[in-house]
Specification:
The complex is a heterodimer of chains A (457) and B (313).
Chain A: H1 2-15, H2 18-55, E1 60-65, E2 67-70, E3 73-77, H3 85-94, E4 98-106, E5 111-113, E6 116-118, E7 122-126, H4 129-133, E8 139-142, H5 147-152, E9 156-159, H6 161-168, E10 177-180, E11 183-191, E12 206-210, H7 211-217, H8 228-233, H9 236-245, H10 259-264, E13 276-281, H11 287-301, E14 312-316, H12 317-360, H13 362-370, H14 375-412, H15 420-446, H16 450-455
Parallel strand pairs in A: 7-12, 9-11
Antiparallel strand pairs in A: 1-13, 1-14, 2-3, 4-7, 4-13, 5-6, 5-10, 8-11, 9-12, 10-11
Helix pairs in contact in A: 1-14, 2-12, 2-14, 2-15, 3-11, 12-14, 12-15, 14-15
Chain B: H1 3-13, H2 30-33, E1 40-51, E2 54-66, E3 71-75, H3 82-89, E4 97-102, E5 105-106, H4 112-122, E6 123-126, H5 138-143, H6 155-168, H7 184-196, E7 202-206, H8 214-231, E8 234-239, H9 242-245, E9 250-255, E10 258-261, H10 278-282
Parallel strand pairs in B: 3-8, 3-9, 6-7, 7-8
Antiparallel strand pairs in B: 1-2, 1-4, 4-5, 9-10
The chains are: A alpha+beta (457), B alpha/beta (313).
């Protein structure tokens, strides 16, 4: 009852000077609006970064071959071609925290259809599992090639939306054949659109085929081998060429080995090297254990002792994620701090005007005391006024902040996300600001002596 | 008097005229020791202000009595201690020593909050400068004191009562007017309605005509006389104007902190209770019953104020 009366009195006192009340609370309105808008922008940009990262493949790891060095001169990452599809199979089989693993062979070559041609930035030879790793299983048309196609080195491929548009315009690419170097690949599917990645490269400009057929028909060696001598020295293609030039069949210098001999001296298998292995952990928490497992397994497989340097490199995409999100978090915190400062400024404005108001209304306070208001009644009245003012400012600020963030989205195209939590916190903060900055003026009012206050001119 | 004594006094008083002495050491004078019958009894009031190291005595042993239903003028030149005495009588200030009995309650040593409650329930104030709230309708001005009343009075009831009071002072058609839209006399009448809304037994008017022209002054003073006569409210007019003082039945003159004359009146009028209201027979007044007055000797307590007197609508 008393509270309601105090509330009515405070409301009535504010109503006596609406313009001043509005101007007083403007600081709070702007402060809260700034908080809401800043948090919305911060959230929006964090979301955008998350989305971009997720499009790279959630929880993914990248295994790259290490570098060779000759006489202390390093040739750079990828020059040591020691990753094999068997490594990939082993990773998938023996690392419990790995959910998917896909070998990748990269080439960069012209793709031709009819009188059109393009060179997509991403030309992958891989397995269907690659799409799981990249979280890209949605197909716009057709379907992905199969593991069977990988085993058979089938000359089939799937292409991205941009590549499809470049080569086929609006016609359906599925069933058509495109040419990579001298091999015809049949398009069996079109991937759904994924947009640009963090670096702005169009991820939809892509062609994906079984790694075996890319290896056999397109890539002479690895596309990543920039070093001419390494390219000349390495890889199966060169061997195949030599085999063709100098056929070894039909001329046996030695007797055919017996079964025992074969068992005792297994044929030295020429590994078919791959460029990268894409690995996906089951969940973000599994990334670190998966990295350790992969590291241990590959060291064992590559017969690297604990003292030696690895000939491979395991990279964690989440490192990148963390960098980007921490950048956006820092921005968000900065924006929030600036907004909080404006709230404090608004609070000081409230305090200033409330102090003026107390001085101006000294006679009113004296009168109220004369007709029986206790000191606590006066304290509560002025405190309620300040808190009401701030809460009204808070509500206005939330509305204004909402409009502001919507306008930012509309005019600048920035992604924003208004969080309900920030609105609630902003409202509570505004009430607290009112209570904190309204207390001193209210206390001052309540300490007035009724006799002096009544005589105050 | 401490709060504890205040409480124990309440237990003693308990709504019946109590012969019990609230003060443990009994003074020899029986009239002073028992709970006084008059509305106001001052016994040997001193008030000394401390200005730095110097003590400035303002009231030097003031004793006076004002009976129920009296209309008294308090006169004195400026610097005579008139304002200080009024502040003490109005429970705005505490005396340095002495007893102040108001409506059967010792008020000289109450805490600030207790005095606020006494002011709210027992005293109405009318000021020279009206002291109306700016930009507030007459109705809200009058309802304002009810905000601080412990009554379980709903807003509608409070509003009803405020309307009655405004009609009583002849402003029934100006309830929505703000002070800037009212003449001086009208403003002072709003102030009178505000002073009466809690139905106090005592009304203080501090130079009520100081800011009014002579014609309006006469109207306002007539209204005081009318309220005094019809409702039995004790009125104390504080003034330095003998014309104003002439409207009262008795004049207390104060000079240099001492009562010069009129402290106890020629004879103490024995006012019968309830005071018959002549006008009630005509059906004219809107307050149809006498102003509720606690039985003599009753000490005001928060629980008492909810007692709505019978017959008051």
């Amino acid at each position: 009852m008393r509270f309601i009366r105090t509330f009515q009195t405070a409301l009535h006192a504010l109503g006596r000077n609406v313009m001043r009340a509005i101007l007083t609370t403007l600081g709070i309105v702007i402060g809260i609006a700034a908080v809401i808008a800043m948090v919305a922008i911060g959230n929006g940009s964090a979301d955008a970064i998350q989305k971009t990262i997720a499009s790279l493949g959630a929880n993914s790891l990248l295994i790259l071959p290490g570098s060779t060095s000759s006489g202390g001169v390093s040739s750079g990452v990828g020059t040591s071609m020691k990753l094999t599809p068997e490594d990939c199979d082993a990773v998938l089989r023996d690392c419990p925290d790995v959910l998917y693993a896909a070998p990748v062979v990269r080439v960069r070559t012209q793709v031709i259809y009819g009188n059109r041609n393009t060179v997509p930035p991403y030309e992958y030879g891989t397995t269907p599992e690659f799409l799981n790793v990249r979280d890209w299983t949605d197909m716009e048309a057709g379907s992905c090639f199969t593991d069977q196609d990988v085993r058979n080195s089938s000359k089939v491929c799937i292409i991205g939306m941009t590549t499809a548009r470049t080569l086929f315009d609006d016609a359906s690419p599925v069933g058509q054949e495109i040419r990579l170097r001298n091999a015809m690949f049949k398009v069996v599917g079109v991937l759904s659109s994924k947009g640009a990645n963090m670096w702005g490269t169009d991820q939809d400009d892509v062609i994906i085929a079984p790694w075996t057929s890319i290896k056999a028909n397109v890539s002479g060696s690895s596309a990543q081998v920039a070093n001419q001598s390494a390219a000349a020295a390495a890889t199966s293609g060169a061997v195949n060429t030599l085999t063709q030039l100098y056929p070894t069949t039909g001329f046996n210098l030695f007797d055919a080995p017996t079964a025992d001999q074969l068992a005792d001296t297994p044929l030295q298998v020429r590994f078919v090297n791959i460029d990268q292995i894409y690995v996906s952990a089951a969940s973000p928490e599994d990334i670190a254990p998966a990295m350790r497992e992969v590291d241990a397994l590959l060291r064992e497989r590559h017969k690297i002792t604990a003292d030696d340097e690895e000939d491979f490199d395991v990279r964690d995409m989440t490192e990148m994620v963390k960098k980007f999100t921490s950048a956006s978090d820092t921005m968000g915190t900065l924006l929030f701090a600036v907004a909080c400062i404006s709230l404090v400024v608004g609070g000081v404005g409230i305090m200033n005007i409330m102090l003026v108001s107390v001085t101006e209304r000294t006679r009113e306070i004296g009168l109220r005391m004369a007709v029986g208001a206790r000191a606590s009644d006066i304290l509560w009245q002025f405190l309620t006024e300040a808190v009401l003012l701030c809460m009204a400012g808070g509500i206005l600020g939330i509305i204004l902040g909402y409009i502001a963030s919507k306008s930012v989205t509309a005019f600048f195209g920035w992604a924003t996300r208004i969080s309900v939590a920030s609105a609630i916190v902003a409202f509570l903060v505004s009430a607290v600001v009112g209570a904190v900055f309204g207390f001193y003026p209210a206390w001052k009012a309540s300490r007035l002596d009724p006799i002096d206050a009544l005589r105050y001119e | 008097m401490s709060g504890r004594e205040f409480n124990s006094m309440h237990k003693q008083g308990n709504g019946v005229p109590s012969p019990a002495q609230p003060i443990t050491h009994s003074p020899p004078d029986p009239a002073a020791s028992s709970v006084p019958m008059d509305l106001i009894t001052l016994n040997d009031i001193y008030k000394t202000y401390h200005v730095g190291e110097i003590d400035v005595p303002v009231l030097k042993g003031v004793s006076l009595r004002v009976g129920r239903g009296e209309m008294v003028a308090l006169m004195g030149a400026s610097g005579s201690g008139k304002s200080t005495l009024m502040n003490i009588l109005g429970c705005l200030d505490r005396p340095t020593s002495g007893e102040y009995w108001l409506d059967g309650q010792e008020c000289s040593r109450l805490t600030n909050d207790e005095r606020a409650m006494v002011r709210n329930h027992k005293i109405g104030f009318v000021f020279q400068s009206f002291n109306l709230l700016p930009r507030t309708s007459a109705l809200h001005q009058v309802m304002m004191p009810l905000t601080y009343t412990g009554h379980n009075l709903t807003r509608a009831e409070g509003r009803e009562r405020a309307i009655q009071m405004l009609q009583r002072v002849g402003l029934g058609d100006r309830m929505d007017h703000e002070p800037s839209q009212l003449s001086g006399g009208q403003q002072q009448r709003v102030a009178i309605a505000r002073a009466l809304v809690n139905r106090p037994p005592l009304l203080f008017a501090d130079e009520p005509t100081g800011n009014l022209d002579s014609h309006t002054s006469e109207d306002v003073l007539k209204m005081f006389q009318q309220i005094n006569a019809e409702e039995g409210i004790t009125i104390i007019l504080v003034t330095h104007d003998s014309n104003v003082a002439n409207h009262a039945k008795r004049t207390i003159r104060i000079r240099d902190g001492l009562i010069e004359s009129g402290a106890f009146g020629v004879e103490i009028p024995p006012p019968p209770l309830p005071i018959p209201i002549a006008a009630a027979a005509n059906g004219a007044p809107l307050i149809a019953a006498p102003i509720p007055q606690a039985p003599w000797g009753k000490v005001l307590h928060a629980s008492d104020v909810d007692d709505e007197p019978a017959g008051v609508r």
